[in-house]
Structure formats: C-alpha cells, structure tokens
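Regression test case RT-17, inverse folding.

Input:
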C-alpha cells in the first residue's frame, strides 16, 4: 500500500476543518448536550473508513465553483436543466433493486409496511 490515510494529519493541517471539528467536539452545535457528537468526532479522527477528511479540500473547491456559478442565473439554469435531463432513473433506486434481486433474492412487492409509530392494533 503506497499511501496510508491519517485523518489527524488533515485535521492538523487544515485550520478551517480543525475549527469545525473542534466546535462539534466542544458542544458548540449542541449546547444542551455538549457530549452529543463525541463519538462522531472520535470516529472521524480515529476510525474513519470512508476517509471523509481526505475529500474536504476538493469539496470546498467544488462548492466555491458552485457558488460562483449560482451568481450567473442563465448558466445556472442551463446546467440545472441539463443535469435533470441527463439524470434518468435515480441510481440509488436501481442499485437497491439490483442488490435486492442479486444479493437477497427478493423482488419488489406491493405489500404496505405500516409506519413504526402506528399503534399495533391498527397495523393489521
């Protein structure tokens, strides 16, 4: 393996990312429950198999391009229409259907599953 992901390196190197993570850790966004996101921060820094911090800089650059594009309504509209026209069927729908068939061996059904908050006596 050529490169090993180390979230702490991104955390220490990127002041804006560090500030956001520190605010989450400190309870800034959950003052009534300051420890609410402790496990999330621990996962991101010590056990992140999705390498979230590695995408941070690219995400920020992309978001800056989106923000600039949004200032040009004509170009924004053109791109939105092209994106919608090219999207077709949602890929997650296809993926879930394929997974259900190929992995679980099940097909779609018209059976309605009651909402979890519906009382048991009304579920029948």
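Golden output:
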């Amino acid at each position: 393996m050529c490169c090993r992901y180390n979230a702490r390196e991104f955390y220490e190197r990127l002041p804006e990312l560090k500030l956001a993570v520190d605010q989450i850790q400190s309870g800034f966004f959950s003052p009534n429950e300051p420890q609410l996101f402790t496990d999330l921060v621990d996962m991101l820094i010590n056990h992140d198999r999705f390498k979230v911090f590695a995408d941070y800089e690219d995400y920020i650059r992309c978001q800056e391009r989106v923000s600039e594009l949004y200032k040009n309504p004509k170009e924004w509209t053109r791109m939105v229409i092209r994106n919608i026209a090219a999207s077709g069927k949602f890929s997650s729908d296809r993926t879930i259907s394929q997974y259900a068939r190929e992995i679980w061996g099940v097909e779609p059904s018209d059976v309605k599953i009651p909402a979890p908050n519906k009382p048991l006596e009304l579920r029948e």
